[in-house]
Amino acid sequence: EAQVTQNPRYLITVTGKKLTVTCSQNMNHEYMSWYRQDPGLGLRQIYYSMNVEVTDKGDVPEGYKVSRKEKRNFPLILESPSPNQTSLYFCASSPGTFQPQHFGDGTRLSIL
Amino acid sequence: AQSVTQLDSHVSVSEGTPVLLRCNYSSSYSPSLFWYVQHPNKGLQLLLKYTSAATLVKGINGFEAEFKKSETSFHLTKPSAHMSDAAEYFCVVRGTGNNRKLIWGLGTSLAVNP
């Protein structure tokens, strides 16, 4: 089954404790992206990647890092999480940059 | 600059009645437009897309949307709501020219009452 898998689905942690949210897709898609979803603000893009070793900032990249060492994986790294990063995060992938995206089920992060 | 506005943050309908979710866009050129649906605790799923072919676009689960250039609208409709349609719906426009990123509306929450 074609899917985008995020882990963990839920995480409660404390300020400053490094965390990684993994994202994996099994569709051989070139384009992958991370979004955060906040009430009243909709979806905002954090980072995206057009292919292996090619990443770029989205609209709200501050406080986040990503890497794309393999085509299928696109982890989101919070080196020093802060409470304002409490949000619902989505990973998405698509065959190309401008094609409709497939989304994971989301990761709800709470930073205390 | 491209933008998208969903005119209603919440819509409530009775099961079996029509659904109308409104979306207006702003774009200098012919845009590509999408509707996504988000069910509780799930990711977003593509309902339908418009990419300058037929102006009436049919999607999954009985939804359709009509692209009206003169009104800069791309409203989502369904003839008869089902309880399972209760979800959040997002209208999305893809920019053109040098800015082809996806621009997301803020969403419309659809409630379906028995």
Descriptive overview:
The complex is a heterodimer of chains A (112) and B (114). With 112 residues, chain A is mainly β. Chain A has strands at 4-7, 10-13, 19-25, 31-38, 42-51, 54-57, 65-66, 76-78, 87-94, 102-103, 107-111. In chain A, the strands form 2 sheets. In chain A, strands 2, 4, 5, 6, 9, 10 and 11 form a 7-stranded mixed sheet that branches. With 114 residues, chain B is mainly β. Chain B contains no helices and 12 strands. The N and C termini of chain B lie far apart (41 Å). Chain A binds chain B through residues 4, 40-45, 90, 92, 97-98, 100-106, and chain B through 32, 34, 41-46, 49, 90, 94, 100-102, 104-107.
Q: Structural class, from secondary structure content of chain B?
A: mainly beta
Biggest interface between protein chains, with counts per chain? A-B, 18 and 18 residues
Query: Into which percentage range does the β-strand content of chain A fall?
Result: over 45%
Low-confidence residue ranges of chain A = none
Could you provide a short overview of the structure?
The complex is a heterodimer of chains A (112) and B (114). In chain A, 0% of the residues lie in helices and 51% in strands. With 112 residues, chain A is mostly beta strands.
Secondary structure blueprint with pairings:
The complex is a heterodimer of chains A (112) and B (114).
Chain A: E1 4-7, E2 10-13, E3 19-25, E4 31-38, E5 42-51, E6 54-57, E7 65-66, E8 76-78, E9 87-94, E10 102-103, E11 107-111
Chain B: E1 3-6, E2 10-14, E3 19-21, E4 23-26, E5 32-38, E6 44-50, E7 56-58, E8 64-68, E9 73-78, E10 87-94, E11 102-104, E12 108-113
Parallel strand pairs in B: 2-12
Antiparallel strand pairs in B: 1-4, 3-9, 5-6, 5-10, 7-8, 8-9, 10-11, 10-12
